[in-house]
Amino acid sequence: MLRYALKRLLGAIPTLLLVIVLAFLMVHAAPGGPFDDARVLPPETRAALEAAYNLDAPVYRQFLDYLSNLARGDMGPSYRYRDHTVSELIGNAFPVSLKLGAMAMLLAVGVGVATGTVAALRRNTILDRTVMTLAMTGISIPVFVIAPVLVLFLAVKQQWLPAGWSGNEGLARFVLPVIALALPQIAYIARLTRASMIDVLASDFIRTARAQGLGTTAIVRYHALKPAMLPVLSYMGPAIAAILTGSVVVEEIFGIPGLGQFFVRGALNRDYTLVLGIVIFYATLVVLLNLVVDLMYGVIDPRIRRR
């Protein structure tokens, strides 16, 4: 297992390098620059700033210097947040995004697996059709539509929950952002769980368990749930990536001081190093989480571990 994990980590290096190259070229190809604002700078001041941040060098030289600093763990200074490095900004904002994403993922897995299992046990009934209809609706509606609708109905009209982050304390401010992030993933996981559970319940070992007199609850809990979770587990990698990218929109809508808000503001302000640092951090996180999902396969299915 350790050898497999090391091979996967080494195999991820070319992927991360490609992400760095593409992100660097796309950021530098965007029109404008980090010092283009409403106040016109004198030419000598602009030249001094570009020299201080190495922006006067050719693009290939900037990339090699950035790559050299990145290999030492230095993501460089932020162009807009002058008193902070990119590493400091990511370190301060990531705990908020992590808490938001973890809560959304737990909600998505818990509700999605439960509703998918119930739909599989009540196959072709009104309950099953209702669950699948709601799942298709959740898949079809994007996060940037779900979030404002939740704010409109639950925060503005009903006033049950706070509409934004600032000025609010406690877990109540997490409710709407977590629901907005989790709803599409609940729909995907419910559909996957239903299809997988139907296949497992038709297996020979399930018929044997029924012949031995076991009830439906015991069969699902002790025999069917683990093998039915394999497709769901394989989807966890893309689901986590979807929640991470979706949090960029949600954090901006709700004013959450996480990585998503820094990413949007960095892109608008042409803060090259901040945008690059967040993209590289997200890419590394997705690669590591996909590796964790692969290793969890061996925990659920011992045959995979033996191979």
Structural description of this entry:
The protein is mainly α and 307 residues long. It has a domain at 99-263 and 282-306: MetI-like (MetI-like fold), CATH 1.10.3720.10. The protein is 78% helix and 0% strand. Helix 4 packs parallel to helix 11 (272-300), helix 5 (126-140) packs across helix 7 and helix 7 (172-201) runs antiparallel to helix 9. The radius of gyration is 24 Å and the shape is globular. It starts with a helix and ends with a helix. The mean pLDDT is 81.
List its traits:
mainly alpha; 12 helices; MetI-like fold; 78% helix; single chain; 307 residues
Short description:
The protein is mainly α and 307 residues long.
Largest sheet: none
Give the DSSP E fraction (strand runs of 2 or more residues). Answer: under 5%
As residue ranges, the low-confidence spans are: none
Mean pLDDT: 81
CATH topology of the domain at 99-263 and 282-306: MetI-like fold
- Highest-level CATH class of the domain at 99-263 and 282-306: Mainly Alpha
- Count of beta strands: 0
**First CA to last CA: what distance?**
10 Å
How do the SSEs run, as a string of H and E?
HHHHHHHHHHHH
Question: Helices, strands, pairings?
Answer:
Layout: H1 2-29, H2 43-52, H3 59-71, H4 86-121, H5 126-140, H6 143-157, H7 172-201, H8 204-211, H9 216-254, H10 259-268, H11 272-300, H12 302-306
Helix pairs in contact: 1-11, 4-5, 4-7, 4-9, 4-11, 5-7, 6-7, 6-9, 7-9, 8-9, 9-10, 9-11, 10-11
